[in-house]
């Protein structure tokens, strides 16, 4: 594998939970991100998948340095960026850009498309000389498949898919190395999702980008990801290549998510087992002891309440190299779900 461009170690973000108006008292904390580890190789796409509220957007904001973590490191090309400030931080920020989920609310309705895409140049004027910016913005519109003459139009004059193209053009303006895309197609029609994903794949090759691609559904990240990390309640519980996750999942949570993915072939659909997860996701203020998935796990046993499973290759697969031998935080990991 290529050398990692990004290494995330023990990343934690806890938000204080306070009570009282005048005399604020901390009564707990929201453990939005609670010990996340992963690496991203240059030119690679890492998909991060998990249900609503599991901490995906918080991870995205931490990676782009929009927030400081409570603990842990984010190493970009070997340097921990969580401790940087001033000019050094600004330089790193240029290289890690974000594309947001909702193209309807993430674009300022009062700004023209040209101003939106060119906005990063106001913050990083060294990236493009003033006289050259309009030409660059038009070039970016062309790159994302929009007419360069639309530069003076406003966001409401575009469809959802076109707006997300504008969001992507803005993300590309500073020629970053990494793009963190937080559910970039979730708000779009299914027919438009594929177009935007194809565009992102083309741009990745053209601009040698590395992607962290966040989604709540395993089927969306399947085609674009080289590797996938499955997140549950602030942690990654299973990670592996496409094949390892989609064909040889060993964590019960991943298996449950996969069983919910729509299958187009009617015969295959008839023969597969659906795993229905019972109960709600526990609150991130009160994470279960031992394995955090145990309150909803169909395989949970007594040991699961006492031991925290580490994200590593489970002992049963260590001596038998093959696709099942990948990191999975389960004490009873098995490719057989039930
Ligand atoms: N600024 C904040 N203050 C307090 N709690 C927060 C804050 N930001 C996020 N949270 C909480 O942290 C948890 C994780 O939120 P996050 O937005 O990262 O989840 P998500 O996986 O992106 O969810 P979704 O799929 O709905 O976008 C949630 O319980 C959320 O309420
Ligand atoms: S450790 Fe136990 S509760 Fe957790 S996923 Fe594995 S079987 Fe389920
Ligand atoms: Mg989110």
From TrEMBL:
NCBIfam families documented for this protein: oligo_HPY (TIGR01727), PRK11308.1 (NF008453)
InterPro entries, A to Z: AAA+_ATPase, ABC_transp_ATP-bind, ABC_transporter-like_ATP-bd, ABC_transporter-like_CS, Oligopep_ABC_C, P-loop_NTPase
One Pfam family hit: oligo_HPY
Keywords assigned by UniProt, alphabetized: ATP-binding, Nucleotide-binding, Transport
Coiled coil residues, start to end: none
Protein name: Dipeptide ABC transporter ATP-binding protein
SMART domains referenced in this protein's UniProt entry, alphabetically: AAA
Positions of the ABC transporter domain: 12-258
Native organism: Streptomyces carpinensis
Entry-linked PROSITE patterns: ABC_TRANSPORTER_1 (PS00211), ABC_TRANSPORTER_2 (PS50893)
Keyword ATP-binding tagged: yes
Family: Belongs to the ABC transporter superfamily.
Keyword Cell division: no
Molecular function (Gene Ontology), one example: ATP binding
């Amino acid at each position: 594998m290529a050398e990692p461009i990004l290494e995330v170690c023990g990343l934690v973000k806890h938000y204080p939970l306070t009570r009282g108006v005048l005399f604020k008292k901390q009564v707990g904390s929201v453990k939005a991100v609670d010990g996340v580890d992963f690496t991203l190789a240059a030119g690679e796409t890492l998909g991060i998948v998990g249900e609503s509220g599991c901490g995906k957007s918080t991870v995205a904001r931490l990676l782009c340095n929009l927030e400081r973590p409570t603990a842990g490191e984010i190493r970009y090309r070997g340097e921990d960026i969580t401790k940087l400030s001033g000019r050094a931080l600004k330089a790193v920020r240029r290289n890690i850009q974000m594309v947001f989920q909702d193209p309807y609310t993430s674009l300022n309705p009062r700004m023209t498309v040209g101003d939106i895409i060119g906005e990063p140049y106001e913050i990083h004027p060294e990236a493009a000389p003033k006289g050259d910016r309009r030409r660059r913005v038009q070039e970016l519109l062309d790159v994302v498949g929009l007419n360069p003459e639309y530069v003076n139009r406003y966001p409401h004059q575009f469809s959802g898919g076109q707006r997300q193209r504008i969001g992507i053009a803005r993300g590309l303006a500073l020629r970053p190395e990494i793009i963190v895309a937080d559910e970039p197609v979730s708000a779009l029609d299914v027919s438009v999702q594929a177009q935007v994903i194809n565009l992102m794949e083309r741009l990745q090759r053209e601009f040698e980008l590395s992607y962290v691609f966040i989604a709540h559904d395993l089927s969306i990240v399947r085609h674009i990801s080289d590797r996938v990390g499955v997140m549950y309640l602030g942690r990654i519980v299973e990670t592996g290549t496409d094949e390892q996750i989609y064909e040889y999942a060993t964590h019960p949570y991943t298996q449950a998510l996969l069983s919910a993915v729509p299958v187009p072939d009617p015969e295959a659909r008839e023969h597969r087992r659906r795993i229905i997860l019972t109960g709600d996701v526990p609150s991130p203020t009160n994470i279960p002891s031992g394995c955090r998935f145990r309150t909803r796990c169909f395989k949970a046993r007594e040991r699961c309440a006492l031991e925290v499973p580490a994200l590593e290759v489970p002992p049963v697969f260590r001596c038998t190299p093959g696709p099942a031998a990948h990191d999975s935080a389960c004490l009873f990991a098995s490719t057989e779900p039930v």
